[in-house]
Amino acid sequence: MTKDELEMMKRTNTPSHKMNMQFIIKNALTSKPPLTFSEFVTALQDRGINILFNQASTGYVSGISYDYKGMTFTGSKLGNDFKWTTIKNRIDYEQERDRALIHETNTRTKSLSAKAGATSEQMRASEQGKNLQQAYSEYAKLGKRSKQIDQFVKAEPKRSNESALKGIEGFSLATLLDGNSHGSLIHANHQTGIDPESVLGLKRKKKRRKRLGR
User: How far is residue 153's CA from residue 61's CA, in Å, rounded to a whole number?
Assistant: First the structure.
């Protein structure tokens, strides 16, 4: 056992996949010795282990791998008892007789691995799609809020100006003479430091001059 496997088993209080595979294979080999090659393959498949043989074009098998719950281990990684050189001596195996069955077993295992890989890819794509959809939704919410903020910012100066025009008296002379019309606020009563009576007196003088043609 590796350090990671031991730590995982301590955390979960369950045997690792590697230990499960070792137990299943040993149990199959001792259940009815000697198993034929076909019986050996079937016994492992029934227990969830698919086998892949390293088979040359001549039919010669130089190695074996075991796939269990998405994890693949070579015979040497499981231990000497699980190498092909050991297995073939514990079952009824003949190279020429079992050549076609080995090829069929390899084809089946590769097909199952491809389907498992496609399913995993679909699950990842589905998860990515959900994440992307969620991101779009959040982006749309942000966009909506941004639009609302823009509308508020555009309307705010108008509200501020209206508030100022209604509630603030006493523009400075510089403000009054800036060339813009300020409506009824251009009135002496709204100007700090200006005597309303003096302004009215100037207006009367202007009217008198008009009448006298001055």
Answer: 77
Residue 113 vs residues 50, 94, 187: alpha-carbon distances, Å: 9, 27, 89
What is the distance between the alpha carbons of residues 4 and 8, in angstroms, rounded to a whole number? 6
Please, are residues 34 and 91 in contact by the beta-carbon 8 Å criterion?
A: yes
Helix, coil or strand: residue 83: coil
Helix axes 17-31, 3-12, angle to 10 degrees: 90
Domain ranges of the chain: 3-130, 173-212
User: What would the pLDDT profile of 151-176 be if each residue is shown by its tens digit?
Assistant: 655 665 555 555 544 444 444 555 54
What are the tokens at 56? 């040359």
Both tokens of 15, joined, read: 């045997």
Nearest to 64 by CA among 20, 21, 17: 21
**pTM as predicted:** 0.53
Q: Which two tokens stand for residue 71?
A: 């994890």
More confident call, 86 vs 201: 86
Q: Which residues contact 38 (CB under 8 A, 6 or more apart)?
A: 98, 101
Query: Residue 22 CB: number of other CB atoms within 10 A?
Result: 18
- Tokens 């031991």, residue? 6
